Amino acid sequence: MSDIIQLLPDHVANQIAAGEVVQRPASVVKELLENAIDAGATNIKLLLKDAGKTLIQVIDNGKGMSVTDARMCFERHATSKIQKAEDLFNLCTKGFRGEALASIAAIAHVELKTKEKNQELGTCLKIEGSKVISQDFISTSEGTSLSVKNLFYNIPARRNFLKSDTVETRHIIDEFQRVALAHPNIAFLLHHNNNEVYHLKESNLRQRIVAVFGTKMNEKLVPINEVTDIVTIEGFVAKPEFSKRKRGEQFFFVNDRFIKSSYLNHAVVSAFDGLLENGAHPSYFLYLKVPTSSIDINIHPTKTEIKFDNEKALYAMLRATIKHSLGQYNVAPVLDFNRDANLDTPYHFKSNSKSTSAPKITVDPDFNPFKEEQQKEIHFPFKREKQTQSWESLYTSTAISDDEKQEELFNNQQEVKTQKTFQIQRKYVLSSIKSGVVLIHQSLAHQRILYEQFLESITVKEANSQQLLFPVKISFSSAEIEMIYTIKTELENAGFSFDEFTKDSVTIKGIPVSVTESKITIILEELLNDINLEVPDASFSHFDVMAKSFARTLSIKTGTLLMEKEQDALVNDLFSCKEPSISPFGKATFKTLTLHEIDNLFNS
């Protein structure tokens, strides 16, 4: 029997490793930014084309590499960060495995330009699919410039799995924000298709958060600061009134490394106990400093999950620290047994000889509500100078006779007999049909109706737009502005009309006729969330995503009272749809119950 186990060729092994390290363009961005930080850069530029599919370039002013290091950095498991296994438990850098550049070079066209300080010439290295094409000496600035072009060019199946440019850009921006928030002392620049998205100057933590998420964020932040023997906690949480329906601005950093931890997130949420509406999520930017020996960051390929030696202690400290800050800044109610100065006697009463007197109320000692003569005419226990006319005269014109009551009752009964629909618990609409009854979920049904209307107006008809008397200016973060600008054409097809785009705001002068002015901000925020979360079953472009997002946001909600005409309109509009039986998100909009099924309920 012949041997069947053999070593994989290097280029195949690199492609397999790339599958773990490089999932999408954002993965490359993360690795290159972290390398630049490890190189001691104080100024980092990120340039993108076509959401990173065509070009990802990171330029830094770090210490650069020698000729030998420039060649070695693309070899698998080649690293300057660790020398022995014990070093894994004392890491102070971002990357350490030596897999990133080798994996990236296996699936893209890579060009590296680098020069060390005090060197006259630098090195230029070109690699395609792990194969070195050329290596030359060049004149370049101190630091490193690394360009990654045509990502997944030799793995077309993997490239086809990439999402739209808007979605991939959103993922890149997420990674960029995480790195930028972890290092406010470093200046960052982000350009996408020659458009400046971020220009972040060296700053402190609060300024960096505001620069990333917009000026309105400043008023939302509550400072957090606590120093203990096992952990130092600093950062900010957002005030409860600014909580969001979606998990968005939630950032944990441990030793300047972004991490995800459902356990620590629960500690934060529990600190807001009683302050948040049901279903709301708090925003936070929390930075933890712990001894490197007390954590293990080598348990996940992307290093976004780490293991703590003392999770329970961290949980308790984090929760207590946030609760203390919320109380300290009068965000949460606290018990205070000290005297309230607001209840002190005003100073002018202290200085003068004035004295306050209790108000005088004259009471009728002879008042008895049970006396027969007093029941005929209403008396008040307090004497008044003027008496109003008899209360009975106020109701003379509205008194209803017994005959009229019987007639009203008869009319109500007739209305019930002729009414075709009934609303149940302000959630369902019941309608009778020949074979029995149909129970309609009012919110899901309205989603289907609006979805088809929006989809038709966006893709088939020319959308009707209503011009606003006064244009509305809405503030967003730079990343959100970039996303809105990317889908500007689709939004205009839907009926929106834009006046001006700036780095942190957008001015809207026209909206779809089915949208009210008060809903503009909510609709756009929900749309951005849906694009970011990649709404399931989006079958084509952003039109489908947009129609689904608008439908869900604008549909009538559970708890809304519907008049009979509104119930009838809902039923008629639903069964005029192309797909009336399911909502845009795949849920049933109605259920039928036949007479036979109803009979069985009583015969069982």
From TrEMBL:
Keyword DNA repair found: yes
Keywords from the UniProt entry: DNA damage, DNA repair, Endonuclease, Hydrolase, Nuclease
Gene3D superfamilies: 3.30.230.10, Histidine kinase-like ATPase, C-terminal domain, MutL, C-terminal domain, dimerisation subdomain, MutL, C-terminal domain, regulatory subdomain
Cellular component, GO, one term: mismatch repair complex
Residue ranges annotated for the MutL C-terminal dimerisation domain, each copy included: 420-562
PROSITE patterns named in the record: DNA_MISMATCH_REPAIR_1
Signal peptide location: none
Classification via InterPro entries: DNA_mismatch_repair_CS, DNA_mismatch_repair_MutL, DNA_mismatch_S5_2-like, HATPase_C_sf, MutL/Mlh/PMS, MutL/Mlh/Pms-like, MutL_C, MutL_C_dimsub
One Gene Ontology term from the biological process aspect of the record: mismatch repair
Cross-referenced HAMAP family: DNA_mis_repair (MF_00149)
Protein name per its UniProtKB record: DNA mismatch repair protein MutL
Species of origin: Polaribacter aestuariivivens
